[in-house]
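Milestone 3.1: sequence recovery, worked example.
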């Protein structure tokens, strides 16, 4: 039902916290020229750096910093699903990441509504050797959260 709502609204919203953020390695390929709005945002979860060079978010009670990206074309979601090794018809345990709609907040803690995000199970993060990022921020290009405009 939720996916239909997104198709009818015409706007796809995705919370990103890793390689899909502006300035990171996958932004250019998957998002540049397709994003109609990008806002710094926060989601509830814990963030882990994985030894493979990208992060994973678990759905837990802490804060993950990232961006709320809005796309005009909802077909982008299938491209992102491929990148994140997510197939909706597979069992949750068979996907590397799973996709779910969660509530997203601005930097002041006010709700920005709901958006899709990709998360990993805590067990999978542990199996892969994830390292907790206590400030909820990950970067592959050296930018810290304090380097960015609010």
């Amino acid at each position: 039902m939720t996916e239909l709502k997104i198709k009818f609204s015409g706007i796809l919203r995705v919370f990103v916290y890793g390689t899909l953020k502006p300035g990171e390695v996958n932004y250019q390929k998957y998002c540049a020229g397709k994003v109609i709005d990008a806002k710094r945002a926060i989601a509830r979860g814990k963030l882990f750096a994985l030894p493979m060079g990208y992060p994973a978010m678990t759905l837990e009670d802490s804060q993950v910093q990232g961006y709320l990206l809005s796309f005009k074309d909802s077909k982008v979601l299938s491209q992102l699903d491929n990148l994140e090794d997510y197939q909706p018809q597979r069992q949750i345990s068979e996907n590397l990441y799973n996709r779910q709609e969660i509530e997203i907040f601005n930097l002041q803690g006010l709700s920005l509504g709901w958006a899709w995000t990709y998360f990993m199970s805590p067990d999978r993060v542990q199996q892969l050797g994830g390292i907790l990022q206590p400030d909820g921020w990950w970067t592959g290009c050296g930018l810290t959260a304090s380097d960015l405009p609010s």
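The chain has four helices and six strands. Helices lie at 2-9, 27-30, 76-83, 122-127.
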